[in-house]
Amino acid sequence: MSADESVNKVGVELRLGPVSCLVLGMIGLRGPSTPYDLKKAAERSVSYFWPFPHSQLYGEPERLAKAGLLSREDEYGGRRRKRYALTEAGRKTLVTWLQVPPDDIFEMHDMAVLQLFFGEFMTEQELSALARKQANLYRSRLETYASIEVANGKRIDRTRRMAPLRLGIRLAEACRDFWDEIADDPPP
Amino acid sequence: MSADESVNKVGVELRLGPVSCLVLGMIGLRGPSTPYDLKKAAERSVSYFWPFPHSQLYGEPERLAKAGLLSREDEYGGRRRKRYALTEAGRKTLVTWLQVPPDDIFEMHDMAVLQLFFGEFMTEQELSALARKQANLYRSRLETYASIEVANGKRIDRTRRMAPLRLGIRLAEACRDFWDEIADDPPP
DNA sequence: GTACGCATGTAAACGGTTACATGATTTG
DNA sequence: CAAATCATGTAACCGTTTACATGCGTAC
């Protein structure tokens, strides 16, 4: 198996992991943002194929600021939030990162599939129950996707930011169908 | 977001995570096994939707043995390996775990998709390169899947252990097609 | 018999998750 | 103005990954 290409280094000793890229990218798209802005934005978009807990979105910007990739502006009074913006170095780092395509593809890490793999220890009823539940979870996920699509309007459907959603839909449909088939006709 | 249902507790203070289940399940399927057996078995099957590093397969059996879910038999001379077998408690724990279907569905955690999401910072060439590379990675993954299928013979295709592979194939095909489309016709 | 690779194992370091904690704003 | 909820943040914990380390089998 190959080394993890999802992690790049920049300058002297700075790890750039998924969270770093999310933060740089989000600020790039949205302009100057507070951690809470990032949290909200991520929840509305990226989180449907990759949910990041909010705690990461508070720590990471500070790290990137110390490395000179973000600038920070503090608000006085009220919530006293910190607003981060891309520096020139930050933008450079972002586009450079985007120039290196990853060497690997996704891994499912799916508990339900693991259970199915060990399905020989399950009764037919248990297997069907598992399959129906999964299929329904995918159905509600698909509803969520649909509402995101309409919220963004069909017109801008073909944008790059929306492409991951279209992939998510196809995969969720495939999973829904798969589990439906298992539920209808459990393998021996 | 709901609590992580992939982790169950049994008895007093024993975490049952994905690795525990893999170990219990694999030993259930194969009979008494050494950690190396588990490693090899996992590589040939489960690893294509969930790769576990071998170091986990050495530590975990010992934990489970201490908890009484596995029995251990040491080999003298030669490699002096440790062979673990399911105890009655272990088998019970396994089937009990399998009776609780997970509450959540898979998350992609896919770097390439994250890059696509931030594709506004990429040139059309970079985007196409990313897409072609991903599509090819999925193609070779599909070849691997195909060889697994023939290795197991078409006859036992419809078994439960093989079902995850069929899902993997569908998903990989969906991803391959998706990236092919992006490569052929990059969104603006 | 020696060199190479396979098999086996351990543990430090890293990153992510969980849980807690608290001040700010809104609502009734 | 009290209560509830939103917004913000911190840090310990826990599992995974990475890296190292070394003994055994085998091929030449």
Summarize the structure.
The structure is a homodimer of 188-residue chains. With 188 residues, chain A is mainly alpha-helical.
Key terms:
two-stranded antiparallel ribbon, Arc Repressor Mutant, subunit A, homodimer, 4 strands, 2 domains, 188 residues, DNA-binding, mainly alpha
Explain the overall architecture.
The structure is a homodimer of 188-residue chains. With 188 residues, chain A is mostly helical. Chain A has two domains: 8-98, Orthogonal Bundle (Arc Repressor Mutant, subunit A), CATH 1.10.10.10; 111-184. In chain A, 56% of the residues lie in helices and 7% in strands. The first copy, chain A, is built from seven helices and four strands; from the N terminus they run ββαααββαααα. Chain A has helices at residues 18-30, 35-44, 54-66, 88-98, 111-117, 124-152, 163-184, and strands spanning 8-9, 15-16, 70-74, 82-86. In chain A, the strands form two sheets. A two-stranded antiparallel ribbon of chain A has the order 1-2. A two-stranded antiparallel ribbon of chain A has the order 3-4. In chain A, β3 and β4 form a beta hairpin. In chain A, α1 (18-30) packs across α4, α2 packs across α3 and α6 runs antiparallel to α7. The radius of gyration of chain A is 21 Å and the shape is elongated. Chain A binds a DNA duplex (28 and 28 nucleotides) through residues 4, 15, 17, 19, 34-36, 39, 52-56, 58-59, 78-82.
